[in-house]
Specification:
By secondary structure, this protein is mainly α. The chain is built from ten helices and no strands.
Length: 173
Amino acid sequence: MSTLDRAVNNDVLMISKSLLPYLRSDRQRPVAVLIKAMELMYTINLYSSEDFVRSMSRSQETGWEKNFLTDVKQNLSSDKAYFIDAILKLTEARDLLSPRSTTGGLDESTYSLHASDSGIPEDAPLAPPITPSATSAETQSASPNPSQIIDKLSPLLDPSQVQLLKLLSGFMK
């Protein structure tokens, strides 16, 4: 569970989520939507506080990518967390093999992840086209494509953050 989830999901919401499977099937959907609406209201209220925003913000200094990957890994199943471990190990190996800067410290490029590191061209599609099937057509139309989500988020992110999200979504397929 992420820091935001822990801040937003109070006892009432957690109990309500636990109750969902025990409701009649015709009641589950409206209650689930109500719970999500309440989460949205709590999130808006939390982000109205500058103190909360400051407490949630993380440094984007050199090496932030490793911290981000570690946070992501904590919220994944073990089979998907394996990919994050692999990326972190490759990054460590690259850091060891990278030339040192003339000032004696590590060069900033040593710690940054680039789309070219993944072997995936920047303009390559993240996922194959979705072909609807008779059994999952309704599910596919309801869930957005990861590339659509990244496209909508990209104006809010730095280019390196967008590249990292594209790289991760490619691994999660």
